[in-house]
Amino acid sequence: VHIGVVKSWLKNMTAWRIEVDRIATDGKLQVTCEPVKSGQDILVGDRIVFEPKRLAYNCKIGLHVGEEGESFEPMQPKEKPTPEVAFRKETWIDHAVKTVCEIEKLLERDKHAVNGLAELLGVCKDEVKRAAKLAALLHDFGKLTVKWQESAGVHKYAGADELLAHTAQREYARFPIHATVSAYALWDILQDILPYQLRKAVLLAIAHHHSVRAQQVPTYRLHENWDKALERAVGRTGLDKLPVDRVFREQQGSTALRDRFPPLEYERLYTAYVLLSKWLRLADRIATGGDESAIFRYEDWFERL
User: Fold this and answer.
1) What pairs with residue 65 in β-bridges?
2) Across the beta sheet with 15-22, what order do the strands follow?
3) Start-to-end Cα distance in the chain
4) Is the CB of residue 159 less than 8 Å from the CB of residue 93?
């Protein structure tokens, strides 16, 4: 519902803001509820609950004032087969290049969104495409650490072509966190390459490509051949050489990213983040699944949440 409509309802009705957050320590959901005092307290993206005595929903006209609302009938869950997931050994270079190829296809499919984002940010569409390709190339950079590669069975003296992005193992729970490490290590590398909103959106999309709002960064040290692996992947994608001297090569204590989530009221940054996150997650899933049917398996899995 448009924010102006909600503010008009507040003149005659009581409302509450609901916030749902995931507790980092145990993963449980925490729900808070607070009364909304005036329309000035409402921001785009808020979840607002109104009195059911004063507001109703009609499938033809939507929400409307003046009738008492009825409870929704819960939908019966449908039995669905568990989507197949491909577990196969894949080098880091090959997966990075494959994800870039898949995101290029998605950008062509969503060219209207690419043009719209470029217009919103005041940049050319090639700038948006380059940001998306960089997100795809660098999303698993955090796997190029000594600990992650050791967990995958790769020794610390392995060559660049031996570093892995995936293994044939089904148990990834014991692998170190890599998404936030990717964003943290690369925080300064895109500084002179992309405009501010695109740079920030790329880094947050990378940090969240497995878990939205992820922020914690564990200790890490990059593998001695990380730079060679990155250089070869860049060469195969046609992207410009990256300033690797700006990469944070190790972090000796646990820390956190500077930002947890782009503010909803920052329209340009938030829109760029949403689109880049969508393209990156789908490209990564298709590249991992091996064919375009993976996109449907991904959406089927996401619906379960």
Assistant:
1) 55
2) 29-35, 15-22, 47-50
3) 24
4) no
Nearest to 211 by CA among 273, 137, 259, 281: 281
Q: CB of 249 within 8 A of CB of 221?
A: yes
Q: Model's pTM, two decimal places?
A: 0.73
| Residues 247, 155, 135, 104, Cα dihedral to 10° | 140
User: Which of 283, 203, 198, 185 shows the shortest CA–CA distance to 243?
Assistant: 185
- Please name the residues in contact with 89: beta carbons below 8 A apart, sequence gap of 6 or more: 164, 166, 167, 168
Structure token digits, residue 196: 């501010």
How many beta carbons lie within 10 A of that of residue 122, not counting itself?
10
Which pairs with CB-CB distance under 8 Å and at least 24 residues apart come from 18-27? 18/47, 18/48, 18/49, 19/47, 20/47, 22/213, 24/215, 24/216
> How many angstroms separate the CA atoms of 195 and 192, rounded?
8
Q: At what angle do helices 267-289 and 111-121 cross, to 10 degrees?
A: 150
Question: Mean pLDDT over all residues of the chain?
Answer: 87
Q: What is the pLDDT of residues 225-256, one digit of tens each?
A: 999 999 999 999 999 999 999 999 999 988 98
In the chain, the amino acid numbered 1 is V
pLDDT of residue 10: 86
Kindly state the average pLDDT of the residues 60-66.
82
The whole-angstrom separation of Cα 100 and Cα 237 is 7
204/262 Cα distance (integer angstroms):
8
